[in-house]
């Protein structure tokens, strides 16, 4: 949606409402036996979102629906991409304008070139899967995600009194633009691995800002105005921030965007390190559909419940 609530006079009230709602999110267990395939689905969703210029709120909601659905129900291998399609289709209908509604032919065209998926899915299959997902979530899609919190935090993410390498900021707008790009990168990282489900969306969003400020060598790392706005101390963010920085290091190694330092230290409240500059577009490599995803004889069972 284009409603920029973080610019509204009642933004603080909206933020508190989102914080309250996220406390009621169900626990994520990570028990899905198909967890090995999650990364492929998330990467595919990212490609579709970028191709059709969809918003990050749609992307994050789609991954949320995907994660919690798979956490409770085992989906037939032949229908994992159908599930991802349904989650994204639902999210787009909820978050975007009507003109952004995804066409089935377009989604089928985006499927990986694989014998099982070469013919794509039918409209009836997609509709049935959408209804199944909606029923699973009791048709309640008002779910706080990282993408909803980040814009609110970005409003005060850079201050005129911030320093870069101990020197005053010469052009705040340029720093803000760069920090936004870094934040978008860390938001992508937060979707890549289910380990981030151990943290609330607002804490992940705040960690994206903190990790971005560290990458840009902004000091102080977590100024008081950010602490007051987010209601998080830097110590609360460090476990999540350090995971993000480890993923950043891995991305640097894979993409060879720039040479890495010999050591990549964890961050403590009073420790600053010289972060290597990196290309913010160096995301992890595109997925390759596993070769052992094979056709099964007979009519497959779509779901298998594993209980709570």
Describe the structure.
With 308 residues, the chain is mainly α. The protein has helices at 11-22, 35-51, 56-72, 80-95, 104-110, 123-136, 146-154, 172-192, 201-215, 224-230, 234-255; strands at residues 73-75, 163-164, 167-168, 218-219, 303-305. The strands form 2 sheets. A 3-stranded antiparallel β-sheet has the order 3-2-4. Helix 2 packs across helix 4 (80-95), helix 7 (146-154) packs antiparallel against helix 8 (172-192) and helix 8 packs across helix 9 (201-215). It is globular.
List the helices and strands and how they pair.
Blueprint: H1 11-22, H2 35-51, H3 56-72, E1 73-75, H4 80-95, H5 104-110, H6 123-136, H7 146-154, E2 163-164, E3 167-168, H8 172-192, H9 201-215, E4 218-219, H10 224-230, H11 234-255, E5 303-305
Antiparallel strand pairs: 1-5, 2-3, 2-4
Helix pairs in contact: 2-3, 2-4, 3-4, 4-6, 7-8, 7-9, 8-9, 9-11
Keywords: Cell cycle, Cell division, Cyclin
Pfam families: Cyclin_C (PF02984), Cyclin_N (PF00134)
GO biological process, one term: regulation of cell cycle
Give a quick set of tags describing it.
4% strand, Cyclin-like_dom, cyclin, mainly alpha, two-stranded antiparallel ribbon, cell division, three-stranded antiparallel sheet, single chain, Cyclin A, domain 1, 308 residues, Cyclin-like_sf, cell cycle, 5 strands
Question: Quick gist of this model?
Answer:
The protein is mainly alpha-helical and 308 residues long.
Class from helix and strand fractions: mainly alpha
- Oligomeric description of these chains: single chain
Main β-sheet description:
3 strands, antiparallel
Placed side by side, the strands forming the largest sheet appear as 3-2-4
Would you identify the CATH H-level superfamily of the largest domain? Cyclin-like
Overall spatial form: globular
């Amino acid at each position: 949606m284009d409603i920029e609530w973080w610019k509204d006079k009642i933004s603080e009230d909206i933020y508190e409402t989102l914080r309250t709602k996220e406390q009621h999110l169900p626990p994520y267990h990570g028990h899905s036996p198909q967890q090995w395939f999650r990364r492929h689905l998330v990467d595919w969703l990212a490609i579709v979102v970028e191709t059709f210029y969809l918003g990050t709120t749609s992307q994050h909601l789609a991954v949320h629906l995907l994660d919690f659905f798979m956490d409770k129900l085992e989906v037939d291998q032949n229908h994992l991409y159908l599930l991802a399609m349904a989650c994204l289709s639902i999210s787009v209908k909820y978050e975007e304008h009507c003109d952004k509604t995804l066409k089935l032919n377009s989604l089928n065209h985006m499927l990986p070139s694989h014998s099982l998926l070469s013919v794509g899915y039918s409209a009836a299959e997609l509709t049935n899967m959408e209804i199944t997902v909606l029923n699973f979530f009791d048709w309640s899609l008002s779910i706080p995600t990282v993408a909803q919190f980040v814009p609110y935090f970005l409003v005060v993410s850079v201050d005129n009194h911030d320093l870069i390498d101990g020197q005053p900021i010469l052009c705040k707008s340029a720093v803000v633009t760069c920090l936004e790009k870094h934040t978008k990168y860390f938001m992508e990282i937060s979707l890549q691995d289910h380990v981030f489900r151990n943290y609330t969306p607002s804490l992940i969003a705040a960690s994206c800002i903190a990790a971005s400020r560290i990458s840009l060598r902004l000091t102080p790392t977590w100024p008081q105005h950010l602490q007051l706005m987010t209601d998080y101390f830097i110590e609360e963010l460090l476990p999540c921030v350090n995971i993000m920085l480890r993923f950043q290091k891995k991305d640097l190694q894979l993409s060879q965007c720039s040479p890495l330092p010999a050591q990549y230290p964890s961050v403590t409240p009073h420790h600053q390190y010289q972060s290597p500059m990196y290309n913010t577009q160096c995301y992890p490599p595109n997925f390759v559909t596993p070769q052992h995803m094979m056709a099964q004889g007979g009519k497959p069972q779509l779901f298998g419940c594993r209980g709570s």
